[in-house]
Design brief:
homodimer; 339 residues; alpha/beta; 434 Repressor (Amino-terminal Domain); Rossmann fold; 3 domains; 6-stranded parallel beta sheet; 12 helices; 12 strands; DNA-binding
Chain lengths: 339, 339
DNA sequence: TCCTCAATTGACAACGTTATCATTTATGCT
DNA sequence: AGCATAAATGATAACGTTGTCAATTGAGGA
């Protein structure tokens, strides 16, 4: 059985409150007393019991991060989440959340209602659906959303700039000489998806490149979607010279499809994506893509949540951070005979 | 402020102990009383406070899963870990652990010493190094290891059968007609790594295929290692017709290298790996590989730990589960002119 | 030396459960 | 009816902290 604060107090010849003060670095303790207490702590190998602290402070000291299935994008987020976990007093509880999954809902509800977590960070593609909305409103548990489907003034969020990222990539392709650029679009109810599409369209317009409806293809942002969309695109009378996947997963599917068809990338067709998944650099050729500053986004989100939890108003409750291009081998100028 | 057990007792006209009995499904409560209590719980929207329960039961109801950096293999594990989290009373705390990282050590030490976790699941490549060993011994926190570097009778573990998996794959390659099979080996201090190498060698011997030392190449099991090793292998006077990566990461590196060199896979050289990472099926051609039953391994490990935590002796403290082959497009018979 | 005020210290209540054991109530048997 | 026994219930003490506020100590000034 490990030592308690009482044992320490006894050994250090003082009250438990004084020991508590030393542990929590509160003022009003003489140097001499502090040293006695520290020595006693050392001797007894004492460590405060976290459950007791949690109970009396009515805080779980735990943040719940909602993740959809543990996929590629998620592992990037997770990596940073864990990294930040070190620096905070809060522990981080990963909870997977599928809107349709009854079990995950029950578990989450228990977590929130039993006060096992103080706050939530919601990561895409999770979002505040009616169930979450009810639960959060009813329990009053604070939360921060990462790249929400829709932005409303009440919801604190941190997001990457999808519009600007898509604009930059499309601009880059145009400047390379492409003017038949296919875009693999994603779910329509997703704000990021719409922003990316608009960023693409905006760049076309600015550079006076004719926009063709048949070059905007549904991909659902997944591998199979990109795969199918690329086959369709290449079957068009005037096929694209570049395929811009609204997500890397879709772009990878497209890349796979082109290679299946024997189309050379990037010599005949350029491919690029969005998200900068780790495997974007491990396929051949490396996938050019748009990177959100995921690390910074996650860090800002968690910090924002902690600010809210500790009643310090965060500097801003709505943050959008700029994206940047990551150019690799999958993009090049279009074949000259097609210009 | 949410309701407490006291409020429920008051409303239901009984003692808090009776409410506690109802909550925990203990016997000795009349149907009538139980209904009154349940009604009161409903009315007050009561949920028990977990921190209080933790304190009085001296349990954190939390299991810590030690992960190395959030990479590919980890996300597979994680996915299952989260899935299992639903089914248990225990919450799961992910903690990254780098032996050299002071911060991660400090955090882990705090978690264990402050009784914030009841037990640990250690996942590869994390292992019981001297620091962990001390910490675990001193605090007496139980743990289960997944595929330990070294197996000792005292340490409970769950592992995949690396020897058998490597044997099966090598056998398969031989039966396809390969007899110049390179093997990309991994860290020598890793049990799995050694088992895989021996499985490879055993199959060669059984089928009387001459073993060549120059075809066993160091790869460190990572992408770059595989990349380099493949280049070296293909530069040999008698290059291999198949490259068996001891890990998928190495195999992917090899695949990448071959494609860079313009070598056709699988027509000229076959490639296969070990681990069945998600992207093994997303490269072109799909990577043949050996799959550990990761889901089952993780599930068994967590169940084993919980058995130990609740003082029920698990059926077995050492479990090895069979691997299986996953054949995809990256393997084929060797070119006929080379046979 | 005494007084005032600030700094230090401590006694004890709270936090919301579960655990122990005594007490009350119901049941079955003679 | 009376008694033994089992079942249901409750009073109260933990669990190990932090928070409140009163008590004590020490320093500085008249």
């Amino acid at each position: 059985m490990s030592a308690t604060i009482k044992d320490v107090a006894e050994l250090a010849q003082c009250s438990i409150k004084t020991v508590s003060r030393v542990i929590n670095a509160e003022p009003h303790v003489t140097e001499a007393t502090r040293n006695r207490v520290l020595a006693a702590i050392q001797t007894l190998d004492y460590a405060p019991n976290f459950s007791a602290r949690r109970l009396v402070q009515r805080r779980a000291y735990m943040i719940c991060v909602l993740l959809h299935e543990a996929g590629f994008y998620q592992s990037t987020i997770l990596s940073k989440v864990l990294d930040i976990g070190y620096q905070q007093d809060y522990d981080i509880l990963i909870q997977s959340y599928y809107p349709s999954h009854t079990k995950s809902k029950e578990k989450l509800e228990a977590l929130v209602r039993e006060r096992r977590v103080d706050g939530l960070v919601i990561t895409p593609p999770c979002d505040v659906d009616p169930f979450l909305s009810d639960l959060l409103a009813q329990s009053g548990v604070p939360y921060v959303q990462i790249t929400p489907l829709n932005r409303t003034p009440e919801v604190p969020y941190v997001a990457g700039d999808d519009y600007q990222g898509a604009y930059l990539m499309t601009e880059r392709l145009i400047l390379m000489g492409h003017w038949r650029i296919a875009f693999l679009s994603g779910p329509r109810n997703h704000r990021a998806s719409i922003d990316r599409l608009y960023g693409y369209k905006a760049a076309l317009e600015v550079y006076r490149v004719p926009a063709r409806d048949d070059l905007v293809l549904e991909s659902l942002y997944n591998f199979d979607g990109g795969h199918n969309a690329a086959r369709i695109a290449m079957g068009l009378a005037e096929p694209p010279t570049a395929i811009f996947g609204g997500s890397d997963e879709a772009a990878l599917g497209a890349l796979f499809a082109l290679q299946e068809m024997g189309v050379k990338v990037p010599e005949e067709v350029s491919v690029c994506g969005f998200d900068d998944l780790p495997q974007a650099q491990q396929v051949w050729p490396g996938l050019s893509t748009v990177a959100h500053p995921v690390d910074e986004i996650v860090e800002r989100a968690i910090r924002m949540l902690i600010s809210i939890l500790t009643k310090r108003e965060p500097e801003s409750r709505q943050v959008v951070l700029p994206s940047r291009l990551v150019m690799r081998g999958s993009t090049a100028a279009p074949p000259p005979d097609l210009n």
